[in-house]
Here is the input.
Amino acid sequence: MDNIAGKKPALTWAVHLSVAALVLVWIFPTLGLLVSSFRTTDQIRSSGWWASLFPAVQNEVFRAADPAENRVERDGVFTVSGNLYVLDGRADSVEDVRAEIQSWGTSSRAISAYGPGETADLGDGETMTVEVNGDYVWSGKDDQISGRGQRIFVTAESPPEFTLGNYQTVLFDESNREGMAKAFFNTLTVTIPATIIPILIAAFAAYALAWMEFPGRALLIAGVVALLVVPLQLALIPLLSLHNDLGIGKGYVGVWLAHTGFGLPLAIYLLRNYMVGLPRDIIECAKVDGATDFQIFIKIILPLSFPALASFAIFQFLWTWNDLLVAMVFLIDSSGETTVMTRQIVELLGTRGGDWEILATSAFVSIAVPLVVFFAMQKYLVRGLLAGSVK
Amino acid sequence: MNPALQGILTIVVGVGGCVAYFYLSNQFLDRILFPPRGPNAGRNINRANAIRPWLFLFPAIFALGLYLAYPVFETLRLSMTDRSAGGAFVGGENYSRMFDDPKFWEAVSNNFLWLLIVPAASTAFGLLAAQLTDRISWGNIAKSLIFMPMAISFVGAAVIFKLVYDARPEDVAQIGVLNALYLQFGGAEPITWLTVPFWNNIFLMIVLIWIQTGFAMVILSAALRGIPEETVEAAIVDGANPFQVFFKIKVPQIAGTIVVVWTTITIVVLKVFDIVFAMTNGQWETQVLANYMYDKMFRANDWGVGSASAMIIMLLVTPILVWNVYNARKEMR
Here is the structure.
């Protein structure tokens, strides 16, 4: 279509550039979360995530080692020496130090008074020297090298650095009460039955609505279309009361039932639309050969409907995995034992609002599975969307 | 019992139960109730065939009725009763109490703002993305990246955008990209975007627009491809420029699809809950109906007003519901 009137190179370039800009804007926020989840607390606090891809300049405060334990006397001069990064536990040995100190100071009012290798005169013979790799020597008289260690303000450039530590903390640290491991399994426990159970119920109903003649069929289809848009908000209180009356209460059974009920209209609608399009000949031949409806359904319709089944399964999976409201109302009780990931993240937003390393990592743990499903099964998802809404 | 084990058991019982129900009920119908033998064979076959659809439909109708249809009427009833008075009928009292609540009107006006902006913006961006990506070689990759937020939960998106909107004190490095850009381009001091009334609504809407644009793009892209080429060719031969081709030839031909996309997103907007709940919880004048309802039902434990506000959401959905049903019936003829 485009090349009918001849392609205009300028216009083509404009299209390429605008699509690139659009894509960039669209993935930039997600990328921010992904990158942040691989950064340490200090890194996140000291610079925007976009800066982490380049060497970062950070201001930090160190304290020289405690004089009471570490000072060494020689000819009446007391000395404390070592490496700031090793002392701080940030590097195992001097060779491991990756940061390069650009400037430093001993007062918060002049944090970059000296360059690396320079010696600061702290008055009355007390001196401090800091090298580019963080090695320092602090020396002076007995009363000067005492009390707490001298504070050292450092401006250092460190190369891009990423860590898996956040995932370690969030997923595998048994002592971390806010960890996501349990919530992850709870979400999985909610999702899988809630995805599988509606499919079969919907498939039989869809077959009846697509290929069986009976009075009231049109009315039922209209009913399904109507229920497709009924907000599930209306169902919360009545169904919770019902579950309580039935003795199910809050728990997995309740949330499975609720998701099954709420997923059925879309399932029936999608599957019916697909089944109606299957060739009539096949079904009629089977009937002539004496197959019952049950056999036709199991042996012919179900295998042929696989794409539609897959589409719905993906929808339902994404929906139940990402759901917050239904889980809060029907599943999570006051004990919090059955919390799901979305709920856990909302709680973290409240209690750990500023701790982006925990938030970003927890959120990414919950996002990762749907993303994998999305990219692996995109074809079916698109097909389902088209069948579900263009009709 | 271990929840995982319970889950597996439920799958087995659920799926097995379904299969058993369908198989056994069919067997019962054909073998015992109306066997196609004996003097009434013909009549029996007809009867069995009249009943069979209902066997197939029964579990679905039962579940739909119980989980979606019944609650509509039950909520209507609850909205006219007073729970503290043992469920006594109070008529419109809950509604008049709700109409006196300024928070309710805040939610309604915000919801209308959402309804105006989100479907329009998502559809416009979706249309733009569809038209542009269809013309380039790496369009499919671009599409799937723009489509990706569909897979991300509202809660996940809320975290993602909280990081974008993050604000730090003036003297520290900004880690939220919006404030970093704002300061870069001459802003005086960092702004906590989510606490600025009115505009914070827009910042919440951006999250939903970001999610829904991919949906609009996928549907509209398919519709654009379905346009007969002759119409476009004819326009070009007649000397139409690319913009005229797009707005006067292509858009009118996919108007029906645009309406479908628009209404689908409208319904999503009416139910929007997670984003507001996770990002502001209705503070700073960002309340919306679905969150207002949750507040009333589960925090204030006021079922009457909660149900009344749920009925308002239902009322707003109803025109779309009627329109959808009307269209579905038209198509079946």
Q: What stands out?
A: Residues 195 and 284 of chain B are 6 Å apart (CA to CA).
